[in-house]
Input
Amino acid sequence: MGKVFLIGVGPGDQELITLKAVRALEKCTAILYDRLVNKAILRHLKEDCQIYYCGKEPDCHYQSQDEINDMLAELAQAGHIVGRIKGGDPFVFGRGGEEALRLYEEGISFEVIPGISSAISVLNYAGIPVTHRKMARSFHVFTGKSAENLELDWRTVAKLEGTLVFLMGLANLENITGNLVANGMDPRVPCAVIMNGTTAKQQKIVGPLGKIAELVRDAGFRPPSIIVVGEVVKFNEFFNWYERKPLFGLNICVVRSKEQTKGIRERLIDLGAGLTEINTIKIQDYSHRLDDYIGYLSQYDYIVLTSVNGAKLFFNRLKKLEYDLRKISAFFAAIGPATADAIKEKGIIPELVADSFVAEGLFDKMKGHLHPGDKILLPRSKKARPYLCDALRDSGCIVDEIHLYEVRPGDMLPEEGLRGVDIILFTSPSTVRNMIAMTGIEAVKNKRCIAIGPITQQELRDNGIRSEVCKLYTMQGMIDQLLETTEKHCY
Output
């Protein structure tokens, strides 16, 4: 018998997941996730975890609640560690109670992991404090779904002095506001409707209670949207920290391997951007090929590492073989600061570092230090450009090239794609080729594309895709390019 985790992962912002939820996801062998869950959450799963989509859209359910309950029970009874991933909190209008009851009745072990509710977090991101000592000392959360059939005492609700929050109520906005006004609430009370809250595509309409339905209808708002009524709405102009971020309103697609996206992901999120992560490449590890050279490492004059992947695989293999790095007397050389940082993590300061992520830059750094007969170890990708190896040999050096890894096309979940993406960041020619293979060339042509350097830009040109290139051929250079060339456009 397996086990089930009922996991709340918060609203749209992928970083509003708890540490406990991340630990649970890392254990799961099967997961079921909803429509409103940010798919970036799935990066915390094991490579072989079974993934099932059971999203519910308005008037279109892929699975009924009974079918979901059955599936949870069946997977757990088959021995799986099951994660039931829910946006927000499992028990805040999330059907988590029904699922927990079914598991209890089946005698299946389960845990509930709370999540940050959209009832609070979406308001925060919209600049609206749910309470304020001088305006609202309480808040009240209601489901707005099928509001015309809710057994609410509207007379009592309309007289509540705290903040009123309605979830899933967009389709019934006129009923909600009409009932409040009809039962005595002042139609001038501030009201806000927030769509796609806590994401870079967040939009907000603010107006008086009596007119908000008309304003929202004219704006064409769609679910998911949250309705908030109360004096605290007035603060939205002063506390609107999120929508002031420089890249707010943009969805940026990062196409790298799963392991490489962390650094740029965090920087883009801090700048307010939304992310679509498509792992266009997978790293096939061939680092065992280094074993044949272990006995000769101390004889090399230079060890040249041309990528972060190569550096990590090189040192990880030496660690596995329990090789003492103190035996290496060679100078280390690196392409770009990111590769240099990967070397420095091992306590080694590279002697030569190219300023940009291109082989030509590294050779220019090295050529003044080389002597005929120098022995050079070049562990790198199987599909690396031949330029550096040829240039070093033409200088009279003896070069041993080892293909430590191969870059292969990654996997993309069926429902993922470039819909909603504004900008694509390409970090290598292989990411260009693989993206085109995965999504089709027309989907890429319709986006603004930024290349990390001229080699990557040339691959885009060869495929008829217009692009920009960074001034500095690094990940920071891509961030700088975004900030310099993107006009602020808040919604």
The radius of gyration is 27 Å. DSSP finds 16 helices and 23 strands in the chain.
